[in-house]
Structures are given as structure tokens and as C-alpha cells.
């Protein structure tokens, strides 16, 4: 793990098995916060951990965070409401502390640090006794008596998988999402004794809505409403101490105007079918909702299959002074923190653009200074991806006020990358998933391009190519299968009419049907061309072996796929094939 990552963060972020193995191989006590994707790492303990590491150093104590589904041995903790802090010494799990209990965590950590110091002082004369515990015995696991006082007891507030009847699914509708009600509804649910096991947010297109709500497919106002913005789906489970016979607090606090509520109650007698009780809608709709948002959620175990796990995207802005002085360093820090830069764009904002971006600060004394700074040179806009990207980026940034960041969070990126003669912090991040979506649309507007699966490939590999297109995140907004006439092919490729290969190309493109598609995505034109690979399939195999032409092209002529070269060509090509379409 990089030195920069330790400098920037008190807790090292573990994202895969290789990083986990490396973390366990390093000497000293390693305390890891195993968190749930929906809530993120525990912030309440960070000051304590910072203090302990400052006082005792990396030689004796290190801290980490890991999402429960990332590491195979931690999956038993998936869906637990309380944080779980796992203590590893010499690569062995020696203590499990459940819940945010500062005195208990401090006592446990100091106990193990004292053991290590004694071993360092006395060498072979001191035998450090530690008892290994196992997550399979999670409920019974306790720290050693000499480390944790006997009267320290776990608060049993976790939400175990307790049977199918304890789960509920809510679908929060677009207007409630747009009004910022997601967190309010989640908070109400938690206050009512429920835990969030899984959540998913996505925008439904008109076809999905009509398939989804078949009984309302012919209501244009409803379709337009449900496609007007993202919906947010949650799976909730009852806390262990909740009485199934008590009045349903969730139903009482749910507003049917804002959400659909699904309640799986039990299985059929043969155990094969989930029977659903639904508030305000049909059982068929509930089944479609469960299958659409959570296709691999297992109600018998309370776990989500890996294929249903999705990364988030957020926007980071690097302001002009930092772009000028430390661009490469901040990009390295972002990479070290486990983010992938999906898209980046360097641009100089006009005053109008900057004022629109910061319009919520209208009337503040500092606004003009901020606008002046933002328009003083190029900013670097980044679309960052990883699990829990929005919250992870916000955690890394630290406080917005630079002096506060330096004083209270010196490891934060805003403190680390402060510019001496500039009073404005140099980094921006989207605050919520809704804001991230708006920022993505602002800085990385969706592009459209024409993609063609050519005759031979359309007959032999159409499904494989389409699957790979969808897996790459493209939306296919229009598609048709058609055979070009000779006149159409000659017109489509007229820019090559003076080339020797022109007649052969026209012959090839008219020998059978092709699949024509409009692909939509940020950076769609360049990403589709990258996905296609070089025109020569032999070169594609060398320089881009995962490209479509490396896999499916037969020759330079029969090279499987076509893509527009720039935005002007894309619009011309789309108009030629599909006519006057609304994009």
C-alpha cells in the first residue's frame, strides 16, 4: 500500500483479497472497521484512532476499513446494522468489538499495544499469549479477559437474518428523491426499528416503466412522472427486538404517494415461491419490483449476490491553482484511495458557468471571490467510480473551510493539498447521489453515436456484441436490423469513394442485414471507438486484445463493427440511418 495513502487517511481502505493479504502480513495490531455499503465507515471513531496512532505510531497499531462483501471471510457480517471492529495480531483474528463503543475500543487497543511493547522490551523472555477467535462464532467472540474488563458487554442491536417475514422493500418515487426525502425516509425507518440491508438507485426509461407498471402503461402522465428522475429502492429488515405481532411502524410512517411498499411474508408450501403482501398495488407488480431492483437478493440468508453489487459515480473538481501546481499528485492520491477515473475533462469555466454552478451560494460575501478563482484558469473535472463513491469522496475531502480542515482533519485532501497563498479549498465533491447525477450531466453530458454490427458479425456474433455493449454501460436508445441497398451504402461511405477499396466495401455492406444502433453515454463517441479497436484485427489483437475487432473481425474489410468518428459525423450518420429522431 502506498505511503501517500497512509498520509492521507488514518484508515487504509481495503478493496480486494490481495490488499487484505498484504494488510495482514504487516507486523503490529491491525484494527479494521467492517462496514455496510449503504452506510459507509464509522466516522465516530476516527478521532480516537487518530489520537492512538499519533501517540503509539504505525509500529504498534494500524487501522483499516473494508466493506463487508469485499473479503470472503467477512461476508458473515453482511447486513449487520452495527459496525464490527475486528482486531488482527500476527495475522490472527483475536478480538471482535460490535457497535461504536469508544472506551471499549480504546481499552482493547491499549491492551494489545502494551503486550507488543512488553514483547519488544523482553524479547524471547516474554511469551505474548493471544487467543484466536473466529467469525463463525461471532455471537460468542470476546476479547481476552486481561484486555477487556469482564463487565464490558456487547449491545446486541445487530439485525441478523431472521426469516423471510422480516423483510420489506420500499420504492421511493422520483419526486420524493428529487426533494431529498431518501435520507428522511431511511432515518424514519431506522428510528422505527428497521435496518437498511440493501439499496439501489436508478433512472427508469419509458420502456422499463411500461413493462414494470403494466396496469398504468397507457397513462402518459404516469410514465412521464416515473421517468422524470431516479427512483430509490431499499430492502429493510426488522430489528431483533421488534415484535412481529406489534403494529407495523413502517406501514404507519410510509406515505403511499411517495413510495411503493412490498412485504414478503412467507414461502409457499413447497418452499419455491415467495408470497408477497403489498400495500396499495398488485402482487405481480411486487414480484417485478423485486426481480428488477434486487434480482440476486436471497431472503433466506439476507445477502446480495455479487453480481447485484454496483459501483457509484461521483464528480470531483480540482480547482485552478491545484491543477497548475499539483495535478499529478492529486490524481495519484485519488488512485491510491481506490477510485477509478472513468472520465476526465480539463476546461476553463466562463463566469456564467461558474455562477450557475454555485447559484446556491447567491448572496454570500465570498461568492465573487470563488467565481473569480474558478474562472482564473482550467479546472479538472473527474467522474470517479468505486463502491460508495459519493460518501468515500466526501470523507476524503474533509471540511469545506480550509482552516477547519487543517486544524481538525490534517489528513484530509483539502488540508493536504492546500495552496499557501490561496484561501479557497482546492477540491469539490458532490454531496449526494442526486447532486452527483446533476454534476455528471453538467460536466459530462451524454453523447450519442451510431454503431453498426456489420453483415457477417451480425449473423454470427450479434448477441455477444450487444451484451458487451450493455456491459460497458452504453444505453441503446434506438436499434433496427436492415440490409443496406447499394445506393445507401455508396452514400453512407461517400467519403471513401476515391479509395481503391470502395467497391469492395460497398459489396460487403450490402451482402446481408446489419444491426444499426444509437448508443448513448458520456464520452460515447471515443469510448465506442476504443471498444471497437483498430481497423486491422491483427493490430487490434496486439494493442487492444479485449476490443471487439480483436475478437470478432475477420479482416480489415470484414472488421465486424462501425462507429462514428466525431460528434458531427455521429449526428449525420444517425440522421441518415434513423431519420429525424429526438435525442
Automatic annotation (TrEMBL):
InterPro entries: NDK-like_dom, Thioredoxin_CS, Thioredoxin_domain, TXND_domain-containing. Residues 169-301, 311-445, 446-582 form the Nucleoside diphosphate kinase-like domain. It comes from the Eukaryota. Belongs to the NDK family. This is Thioredoxin domain-containing protein 6. It comes from Clupea harengus. The lineage of its organism: Eukaryota, Metazoa, Chordata, Craniata, Vertebrata. The gene is LOC105889340.
Amino acid at each position: 500500500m502506498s505511503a501517500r495513502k497512509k498520509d492521507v487517511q488514518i484508515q487504509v481502505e481495503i478493496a480486494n483479497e490481495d490488499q487484505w493479504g498484504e494488510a495482514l502480513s504487516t507486523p503490529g495490531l491491525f484494527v479494521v472497521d467492517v462496514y455496510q455499503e449503504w452506510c459507509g465507515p464509522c466516522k465516530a471513531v476516527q478521532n480516537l484512532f487518530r489520537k492512538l496512532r499519533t501517540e503509539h505510531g504505525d509500529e504498534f497499531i494500524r487501522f483499516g476499513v473494508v466493506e463487508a462483501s469485499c473479503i470472503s471471510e467477512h461476508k458473515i457480517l453482511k447486513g449487520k446494522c452495527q459496525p464490527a471492529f475486528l482486531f488482527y495480531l500476527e495475522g490472527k483474528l483475536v478480538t471482535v468489538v460490535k457497535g461504536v463503543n469508544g472506551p471499549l475500543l480504546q481499552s482493547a487497543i491499549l491492551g494489545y499495544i502494551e503486550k507488543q511493547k512488553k514483547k519488544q522490551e523482553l524479547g524471547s523472555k516474554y511469551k505474548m499469549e493471544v487467543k484466536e477467535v473466529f467469525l463463525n462464532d461471532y455471537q460468542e467472540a470476546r476479547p481476552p479477559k486481561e484486555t477487556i474488563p469482564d463487565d464490558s458487554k456487547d449491545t446486541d442491536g445487530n439485525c441478523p437474518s431472521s426469516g423471510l417475514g422480516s423483510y420489506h422493500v420500499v420504492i421511493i418515487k422520483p419526486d420524493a428523491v428529487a426533494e431529498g426525502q431518501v435520507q428522511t425516509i431511511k432515518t424514519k425507518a431506522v428510528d422505527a426499528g428497521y435496518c437498511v440491508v440493501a439499496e439501489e438507485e436508478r433512472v427508469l426509461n419509458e420502456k422499463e416503466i411500461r413493462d414494470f407498471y403494466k396496469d398504468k402503461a397507457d397513462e402518459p402522465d404516469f410514465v412521464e412522472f416515473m421517468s422524470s428522475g431516479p427512483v430509490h429502492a431499499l430492502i429493510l429488515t426488522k430489528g431483533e427486538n421488534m415484535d412481529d405481532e406489534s403494529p407495523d411502524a413502517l406501514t404507519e410512517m410510509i406515505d403511499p404517494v411517495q413510495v411503493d411498499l412490498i412485504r414478503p411474508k412467507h414461502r409457499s408450501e413447497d418452499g419455491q415461491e415467495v408470497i408477497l403482501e403489498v400495500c396499495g398495488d398488485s402482487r405481480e407488480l411486487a414480484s417485478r419490483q423485486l426481480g428488477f431492483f434486487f434480482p440476486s437478493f436471497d431472503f433466506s440468508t439476507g445477502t446480495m449476490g455479487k453480481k447485484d453489487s454496483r459501483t457509484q459515480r461521483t464528480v470531483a473538481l480540482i480547482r485552478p491553482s491545484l491543477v497548475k501546481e499539483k495535478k499529478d499528485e492529486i490524481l495519484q492520491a485519488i488512485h491510491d484511495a481506490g477510485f477509478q477515473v472513468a472520465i476526465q475533462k480539463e476546461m476553463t469555466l466562463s463566469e456564467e458557468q461558474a455562477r450557475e454552478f454555485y447559484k446556491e451560494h447567491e448572496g454570500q460575501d465570498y461568492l465573487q471571490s470563488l467565481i473569480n478563482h474558478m474562472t482564473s484558469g482550467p479546472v479538472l473535472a473527474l467522474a470517479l467510480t468505486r463502491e460508495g463513491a459519493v460518501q468515500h469522496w466526501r470523507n476524503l475531502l474533509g471540511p469545506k473551510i480550509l482552516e477547519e480542515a487543517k486544524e481538525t482533519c490534517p489528513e484530509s485532501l483539502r488540508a493536504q493539498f492546500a495552496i499557501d497563498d490561496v484561501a479557497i479549498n482546492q477540491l469539490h465533491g458532490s454531496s449526494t447521489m442526486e447532486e452527483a447525477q446533476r454534476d455528471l450531466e453538467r460536466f459530462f453530458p451524454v453523447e450519442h453515436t451510431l454503431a453498426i454490427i456489420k453483415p457477417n458479425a451480425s449473423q454470427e456474433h450479434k448477441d455477444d456484441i450487444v451484451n458487451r455493449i450493455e456491459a460497458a454501460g452504453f444505453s441503446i436508445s434506438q436499434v433496427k436490423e436492415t440490409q443496406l441497398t447499394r445506393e445507401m451504402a455508396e452514400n453512407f461511405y461517400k467519403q471513401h469513394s476515391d479509395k481503391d477499396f470502395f467497391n469492395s466495401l460497398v459489396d460487403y455492406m450490402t451482402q446481408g442485414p446489419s444491426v444499426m444502433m444509437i448508443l448513448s453515454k458520456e464520452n460515447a463517441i471515443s469510448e465506442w471507438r476504443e471498444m471497437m479497436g483498430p481497423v486491422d484485427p491483427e493490430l487490434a489483437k496486439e494493442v487492444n486484445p479485449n476490443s471487439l475487432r480483436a475478437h470478432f473481425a475477420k479482416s480489415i474489410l470484414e472488421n465486424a463493427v462501425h462507429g462514428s468518428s466525431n460528434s458531427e459525423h455521429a449526428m449525420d450518420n444517425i440522421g441518415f440511418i434513423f431519420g429525424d429522431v429526438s435525442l
